[in-house]
Amino acid sequence: MLGTESFRIPCITTYCTLEEFINALTKLIVPLFLITFTAMLLYGAFVYLTARDSADKVASAKKIMVAAIIGFVLAVLAPTIVNFVAGLLGVQGLGI
User: In the chain, which stretches have pLDDT less than 50?
Assistant: First the structure.
């Protein structure tokens, strides 16, 4: 019969579900966070080392390095925070 079989569109991409796509995107974003963190930390260190006696440049360099470290900590803890909030709200199956 015509109506008893389920019609399925074949998957023509590498990622057939939204979950697979999000997992692949997550694997791409993590190295970008690490590269950005390293670049910001090196830039802050460079500004600090080249500041000489300028108090403004030293303060700016410290702010850059602190911001880089805070961003890194948030990036590392983001999956844990999402899972914690999802647990509080009763959401299951995130798999992050």
Answer: none
